[in-house]
Specification:
Rossmann fold, alpha+beta, 4 strands, about 25% strand, 2 helices, two-stranded antiparallel ribbon
Length: about 80
């Protein structure tokens, strides 16, 4: 399991996109579970197979399964 808390938040767009692509490759090569905290919904959709929205007190507000395969469009 790889835990990441806002790892790309302070990066410029070009570097962020490159690292997002590397995270996707890492996930497929290692078949690891990656738990990524982000406030960027586009990033979450691009990187994730499942998105969980948490509210106050870590209560689950909603969950989404992302069925599109990689590579995904950034649009």
């Amino acid at each position: 399991v790889i835990l990441m808390d806002e790892p790309l938040g302070a990066l410029d767009a070009f570097t962020r996109y490159k690292l997002q692509d590397q995270l996707v490759q890492l996930k497929h090569k290692t078949e690891s579970t990656i738990i990524l905290v982000t406030h960027d919904i586009d990033e979450a959709i691009y990187l994730s197979d499942r998105i969980v929205l948490l509210g106050e007190g870590c209560n689950i507000i909603s969950q989404y399964e992302i069925t599109a395969s990689h590579p995904r469009s950034r649009n």
